[in-house]
Design brief:
It contains 7 helices and no strands. With about 190 residues, the chain is an all-alpha fold. The protein is elongated.
């Protein structure tokens, strides 16, 4: 019969062979779908990684500038956002001035000292938003100005009292530390 599309058993093969072939095709389709999904996930992860690498708050000019071949890494303290940003900027500025660091190197070194809250702040800055060390310093100090040390006046030293149970040596050390913090000792 010419138009008959009913399933006929092939002699010697049986319906079970046809069912096995269909099952194998379905298994292979599932396997191909898993492979496609895995490839898509890997591509997405790679794209996200590329995006992270390409994102940079430093301007392209600062970022692309070469670090000298003879440069030896400085031992700079890290900054987590909890200490005085002016003090940290002073340490980084002094160390980079000693070695005669170029603008791009100062920016890279300062950004390399950031961790925790400070690093998260830096990572959230707009792409290419820092054009110079002065610009970076200004943004940095402004952001963490709440952590700056309060100015101590000479009059506030009168409030420092010796506790009865405190050894005299500890009191003098505490008083001495406070006098160092006085902003205008005269």
């Amino acid at each position: 019969m010419a138009g008959d599309h009913t399933n006929h058993e092939i002699p010697g093969s049986g319906a079970t062979t046809l069912q096995a072939a269909v099952a194998e095709i379905r298994r292979l389709q599932v396997k191909m779908a898993e492979i496609d999904k895995e490839k898509t996930e890997k591509a997405a992860a790679g794209a996200a990684e590329d995006e992270i690498i390409e994102f940079q708050p430093l301007s392209q000019v600062l970022w692309d500038a070469k670090v000298p071949d003879n440069f030896k890494t400085l031992h700079l303290p890290s900054f987590d956002g909890k200490t005085d940003p002016l003090e940290h900027r002073m340490v980084v500025g002094t160390q980079t001035a000693i070695i005669g660091a170029a603008e791009h190197l100062k920016c890279k070194l300062l950004s390399g000292t950031l961790k925790d809250t400070a690093l998260r702040w830096y990572m959230n800055l707009p792409n290419n938003s820092i054009g110079s060390f002065k610009d970076f310093s200004r943004k940095f100090i402004h952001q963490f100005s709440g952590s700056k040390h309060m100015k101590v006046t000479a009059t506030s030293l009168f409030a420092i009292r010796h506790n009865h149970s405190e050894p005299l040596r500890e009191y003098l050390a505490r008083f001495s530390e406070a006098t160092i913090k006085v902003s205008n000792p005269n």
